[in-house]
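Standup notes
- HV: blocked on the assembly model, inputs below
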Amino acid sequence: MRYRWPIVPDIAMATISLSRGLDLPIAGAASGAPVPLDLPATVGLLPPEFVGFVPRMAVQEGDAVQRGTPLLFHKSNPDLLLLSPVAGRVKEVRRGARRVITEVIIEVGGDGAVSHRQWTPAELSKIPRDEATTGLLRSGFWPHLTTRPLDKIADPARPAQAILVSGTETGPLQPGADVLIPADGKTALQAGLYVLKALIDGPVYVTTPAGSRHPAFQGLEGVSTSEFSGPHPSGDPAVQVNHLCPPTGASGVVWTIRAWDVWLIGRFFLEGSYPGDRVYAAVGLGVKQPRFVSTVQGAPIAHILGAISDGVRIIRGSVLTGESVSSDAYTSYYRRGVHVLPEAVERKVLGWAMPDLGTFSVYAAYVKGLLGSKTPADVRPGVYGGHRAMIPIGQYERVIASPDILPDPLFRSMIAGDIEEATKLGLLELSPEEAALCTYICPSKNEFQILLRESLAAYEKEN
Amino acid sequence: MKGAIEKLLGSVRPHFYGEGKLKWAWPLHEGLETFLLTSSEKTHQDSHVRDPMDMKRLMIFVVFAILPAMIAGMWNIGHQGFLGEGNTADAASIVQCFLRGAWHMLPIVIVSYTAGGIWELLFCIVRKHEINEGFLVTGLLFPLTLPPTIPLWMVAVGVSFGVVIGKEVFGGTGFNVLNPALTARAFAFFAFPAAMSGTGSVWNVAGKWNPFTAYAEPIQGFTGATPLLAISAAGRGGDPLAALAAEHWTWTDAFLGNIPGSMAESSALAILIGAGMLIVTGIGSWRIMVSCVLGLVVTTGILSQVAGPESMAIMHLPPHYHLVVGGFMFGAVYMATDPVSAAQTQVGRWIYGFGIGAMVGLIRVFNPAYTEAVMMAILFMNVFAPLIDYVVIQRSTRRRVARLAAQGG
């Protein structure tokens, strides 16, 4: 009989190596320590970011607020709050179609913070569930817990089967734990994990990049730690959920959260006030000096970018899944990277036949693809071809890192609008990052993440 | 250069778009524009960046991969022609053979591209689609499977059938069930049997006019048979290798492409170079190619072992000969791998390819007079590919459901 390693949960460090995916070598990475910035004049909160949150104003325009004052509450659950990251005055509430609140803008000024109970790590290790829940709701960090499937904010009334705390980030040029959690961040990270652990009966998983020696992640208690290695999307929480703790049953749900946000939760409980400071990354070739900055949550994008070139596209998030915004927009609650992408797309004569030495492609029909080039490249927002029917040459399999997903049949059923069949084939497991990589790689120029959003909307309508 | 092209396209652009007189023909302008210059279109939302690979480049690389077989075929057509006229093997230079072959092959290819291209354009205009590059491959593969003596009007009729019935009625490239090039060939085979098959001189251009030698008659008693026909003629109890030796054909000849046959199918070596290009670029599925070979080798290996003294000669033919004679290599590398009509799951591709190889073996051995084994085997498995995929997908779905249930426990 073959010897088998004993399985010891919570102690054994499992390494999960994913070979499928793509690390897009895109130039313009930030480097160095975060640059501390002066306070911006205004900060913004963007309610549409919180999928499933129906915002109602807790304050009025012109009201003075402190750091940690509730700005918005959820229509059907007034305990679910979003807080002001700074002290100041509510300058403006912007509304979009059907008077939905799209931006709440705070004029920064003065100081003062709402104070809460300060916990010690020892107390937190035994925090009861109801106190953990109400504490987390009050902290304004609850919406950082998002669900798999469907990527909505967690519902306090519907506990998760497991919580996955992802300490990995593999999105192109996006900042990860090495920048966002300081080396001495273990106490706060552990404190945050105690709170999460108390929320549910199920396990809490923490993932780190393979080989990372970040001190904050060493010897964490009460959680099951796994390492992930491999190209993007190996660091995507949704993909990690599919490997470690897929939701089961018709209504099973798993919550995911980023480790750097858990670190902030820990700080809230330890310090007794809302930590409004954030590290963001300004990246891409459109930024004169790509850099990490230390500022406040919701700072204006122009504030963190510094000097930028003309003719650029500003993307809140990564080039794969981020959102194109104007230069007067505000930074995201969830996404810490802002990518500035030069817009100009060069047209090439007889491009379909040229060897094209300088162009990055994953396909061996280009020299750089043939050689497997990983040199950071000047990637531009061109479509580079006409829209065609899907021709399955196994290209999507190269970037789908979740197990047991057959991309071609899945996409076909999604295109056909057969949601029942698509669900059987893994519609709910497919991560938006994977769909975006399929879009990137598709020679027929199909847009799979749009298809995914439409299919998930149809799924919710049917169920 | 680029500026001049942009200026020219821009100056005629108003005629094709908006209220222009030629607005019905915009696919023509779009096709020409994107042929000359890469697209200027930008992404408008996530994903903001895209790989530069597009269908044009993908299809043109398939064409590049076909070129070695085409070039070897040109030489071989000329070479076989000179041999058929009673010359010795070194009577004509390589260049002469090549040019003579090109003289016969290029008109056929040009007619195929022109006739098929007109249909393609017509459908694009009626459907208001952009011109689809899939035809670059179909329009080349179809003529290369024909005998070099085929009348040009048959090429035009055949490719028209392939494009219209094989592809466009299903909705164009990406939606067809059968390989359009093989559909065209099957049509030509049944519509024009005399010109497409048989033991006549259809496989050899000997005696046809050519610009390099004076008009010459084929030598007396010249049959122009292909290796498979020669083996088939050996009948029951015959020795297949002796039948090949009688025509001075060795395995190496067949491998290098020094045997008569369809225009570009003869050189296994050239086709293997093409296969390498398809595999390295990831465009052709190596799984299908390998499993086709496995299917043929396993089937003919077993059959040649169980063959008795009364069996047909071809049943005794060893598997490694089966690989290099006839259209097997050409079919396995260029036809079976058509991603649209093949199985589309990885496991399914193995089954699909193996089925093609096995069926080629069975048809060749049990119906040796029938020369179209490869074409029929691929079309047959094209029909079965959706069923194979269905079974593979069902299994995968069940496994997923079981895994999710187990992890929940």
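- HV (later): unblocked. Chain B touches chain A through 65 residues (CB under 8 Å). Chain B has a mean pLDDT of 85.
- Next: hand off to the docking folks.
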